């Protein structure tokens, strides 16, 4: 990397660390601003699950159900106000984890009848999703902070890595 361009790495690192600390200082605002990204991810996943259901040779109705629920949750996130986003996002994510866990567990049991190597891990991951969803539903405030803080720490980590890379470059 040329010397002129390596300064962009330092700049990106500084901005990333700054953004991470801003997210730590304002978790509610961070959560609200991330809502659009959550909605986008949910929309893509919901559409993907529905398309996969329609194209699958062996159709499991629970896959279609999961896709529809995920798409509805995406639409709910797209249509919320700032206050609704901050309070609604933790609930939506916990509800999504719960329904996703339930559908994956049911599908896993069906798949286990034909392929245990795929079905068994799917059942266990589904059970973990159910447990995570229930814990998050019981503690929505903790869920909101956890989401914001996790993303903030990732920003800080990535920023520090970029700054270290800048100083290691010749």
TrEMBL record:
Domain of life: Bacteria
A single GO cellular-component term on record: plasma membrane
Alphabetical keyword list: Membrane, Transmembrane, Transmembrane helix
One Pfam short name: DUF308
Transmembrane listed as a keyword: yes
Coiled coil feature spans: none
InterPro entries for this protein: Acid_resist_chaperone_HdeD, DUF308_memb
Transmembrane segments annotated in the record for this chain: 29-50, 62-82, 88-109, 121-139, 145-167
This protein's record includes keyword Membrane: yes
Protein's recorded name: Acid-resistance membrane protein
Organism: Streptococcus suis
């Amino acid at each position: 990397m040329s010397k002129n361009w390596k300064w962009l790495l330092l700049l990106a690192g500084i901005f990333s660390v700054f953004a991470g600390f801003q997210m730590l200082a304002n978790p509610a605002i961070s959560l609200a601003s991330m809502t659009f990204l959550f909605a986008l991810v949910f929309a893509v996943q919901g559409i993907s699950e529905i398309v996969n259901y329609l194209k699958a040779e062996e159709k499991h109705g629970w896959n279609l159900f999961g896709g529809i629920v995920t798409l509805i949750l995406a639409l709910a996130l797209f249509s919320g106000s700032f206050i609704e986003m901050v309070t609604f996002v933790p609930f939506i994510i916990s509800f999504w984890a719960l329904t996703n866990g339930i559908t994956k567990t049911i599908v896993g049991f069906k798949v286990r009848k034909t392929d245990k190597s795929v079905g068994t891990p799917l059942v266990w991951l589904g059970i973990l999703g159910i447990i995570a969803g229930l814990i998050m539903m019981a503690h929505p405030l903790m869920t909101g902070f956890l989401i914001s803080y996790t993303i903030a720490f990732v920003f800080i980590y990535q920023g520090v890595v970029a700054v270290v890379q800048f100083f290691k470059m010749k």
